[in-house]
Design a protein that fits this description.
Radius of gyration of chain A: 16 Å
CATH superfamily of chain A: Hotdog Thioesterase
Helix content of chain A: 10-25%
Strand content of chain A: 25-35%
Number of strands of chain A: 5
CATH topology of chain A: Thiol Ester Dehydrase, Chain A
CATH class of chain A: Alpha Beta
Largest sheet of chain A: 5 strands, antiparallel
Distance between the termini of chain A: 19 Å
Strand order of the largest sheet of chain A: 1-3-4-5-2
Largest interface: A-B, 22 and 22 residues
Oligomer: homotetramer
CATH architecture of chain A: Roll
Order of helices and strands of chain A: EHHEEEEH
Number of domains of chain A: 1
Chain lengths: 145, 145, 145, 145
């Protein structure tokens, strides 16, 4: 299921991210997705802060998540991340989160998967702008799309 | 667009919910959805705390959100909420969020819409359980579904 | 203990604010304090958004909280709030949070108390600026300090 | 200022942790402190999850933070952490956060410092219990207190 992902990042569940069911609150996965996007862009050579300095924001237009198994405090999560398509001013990210086994006798556990659609906008009027060419090319090269 | 909603709840955007774009962080809408679910259930006569005391959790199996316009600090949001279907152990909530106008010369603004699928599970093993009949009936009566 | 407070605001604990101990996460009280500050200023006639539009930020320089009893999901909290002092560019807020009883046979429960020191800064360079006179006067009049 | 600290952990600021001032929200530093506590305990050989499995919670009784300079999205923070004292059922943590320089021509920047008092309680009644001896000893040995 993660065969077509060329990138992943890892994080550890914080106590703050759990709720009274002792599992990660459903809304926190969108924070994990954000961390993954940041690291994905860095991995192909770009800091999102630099993109903002050029006058752009990448705003989220759509998001979704499916939850398979609960994650808990101190779990080690691996977030597989890829871009499926890139259009004129929008592109998406697809995520697949697993809990990595603490030792070899255990298996990885499928936690959640989801996606977000991002739109490149001008940071003054929030109107769509064409995604910068260098970034488009870097993503297309990395994903071979 | 909100004609078929029989319930709404209101909240005011907190500074904590904004991010460096000066708008509400995309993941916070799922917190707003949670507030709306809690108040929806209360409106038809049930506290979610009481449902938990009977040994159930309502866990989120799927969630999604579309973002139309940014909401900002101190905005007054109205979250229209309804249940579209209720199955054996799962049901959904649909949400539509608008920013209510501060005065009569302004119009309401469409902010976001989304949905969540909830599954009734046993709070010890997280296995699906049949939704309690009193709650099923209360939702069906309220929504006429 | 709340005799010298002339203002309070109320809120209800969200599921998102709880953690795996089934109580409100200790860091969330600072969000509650923020809500209280916003409502306090509104109560004496000022929106913090308008203050920002004039080119100021009120940044937090110090914060603290003492925790007496845990608050839980769906608890109704009342946050007593007052200003103790106002200097050239800084002033403080003091908070006292109680859980209000759900019915008359129960008593209010002391949850937490704390304070924050705020500094009025220029929103371009974050350097201290004199607190606007109208606001200083409004606070002094309200608190009789 | 960090000379008497024997441990630090690092993290990177997430977009979610920023607010409309484009800086880290003041309440998020308490989340950073939590991450630091978790890693501190792990560093001396203990997982907080294991302590919870023995029937204890470490609840926060007091917390405070002083803010020196704003941290921003994607900043690399280093959280120096130590225990100053350990009593029968309570102990504290002291934290000092710096932003580490992105390159050698820049200096580290002092961001915030704070402390928390933790109380070891029974996880059923939240009453204070004596801190487990193995943990007390491990902390005393590590800190030489």
């Amino acid at each position: 299921m993660t065969d077509n992902f060329k990138f992943y990042t890892e994080l550890k569940v914080r106590y703050e991210e759990t709720d009274a069911m002792s599992v990660v609150y459903y809304g926190k996965y969108f924070v994990f997705f954000e961390v993954a996007r940041t690291e994905y862009l860095k991995n192909i050579g770009y800091n999102y802060t630099d993109i903002e300095k050029e006058g752009f924001y990448f705003v989220v237009a759509e998001s979704n998540c499916k939850y398979y198994n609960p994650a808990r405090y101190d779990d080690d999560l691996r977030i597989f991340t890829r871009v499926e398509y890139i259009k004129n001013s929008s592109f998406n990210f697809v995520y697949h989160i697993i809990k990595t086994a603490k030792n070899e006798t255990l298996s990885d556990v499928k936690i959640a998967s989801g996606s977000t659609v991002l739109v490149c906008v001008d940071n003054t009027d929030f109107k769509p702008r064409r995604i910068p060419e260098y970034l488009r090319k870097a993503i297309q090269d990395f994903e071979q799309i």
